[in-house]
């Protein structure tokens, strides 16, 4: 049966990188950021998977963390980018290869000051519910 880790990440990447409005705000969407990439950018980061089986099929909740990095002084740029990411994912359908997508829910966002004084960081978390295809 496998795990939806990879397919969920790929589906999120497709949605985010395929949106012209978001891509107009950032230099890219990454799993691993290439050296020398210009700020701001989005990183699809850590994930947690929780079994969520029903009576007749396997299910999973994949909690996906998305990071947004910026050199802009203050948090307004991060707020604009975060707002677009939330609009693209919260309650929206995802094409999760090999799995039936049930729901995507925005759980929280948090802005952070990096120890490097020129960097700002936002963490967003989404819960993606999937079920085994029958």
Describe this structure in words.
The protein has three helices and five strands. By secondary structure, it is of the alpha+beta class. The chain has a single domain, classed as 2-Layer Sandwich (STM4215-like), CATH 3.30.2000. A five-stranded mixed beta sheet has the order 1-2-3-5-4. β2 (41-51) and β3 (59-70) form a beta hairpin. The mean pLDDT is 95.
Write the layout of secondary structure elements.
Blueprint: H1 5-17, H2 20-23, E1 29-30, E2 41-51, E3 59-70, H3 76-89, E4 99-113, E5 120-132
Parallel strand pairs: 1-2
Antiparallel strand pairs: 2-3, 3-5, 4-5
Descriptive tags:
23% helix; five-stranded mixed sheet; STM4215-like; 134 residues; 3 helices; 5 strands; alpha+beta
* Low-confidence parts: none
What is the molecular shape? elongated
Which second-level CATH architecture applies?
A: 2-Layer Sandwich
Work out the count of structural domains. Answer: 1
Q: What's the helical proportion of residues?
A: 10-25%
- SSE class: alpha+beta
CATH class: Alpha Beta
Quaternary arrangement of the chains shown? single chain
CATH fold assignment: STM4215-like
String of helices and strands = HHEEEHEE
Distance from N terminus to C terminus (CA atoms, Å) equals 11 Å
Largest sheet: 5 strands, mixed
* Structure summary, number of beta strands: 5
Overall pLDDT score: 95
Radius of gyration: 15 Å
Beta-strand content estimate: 35-45%
Number of helices: 3
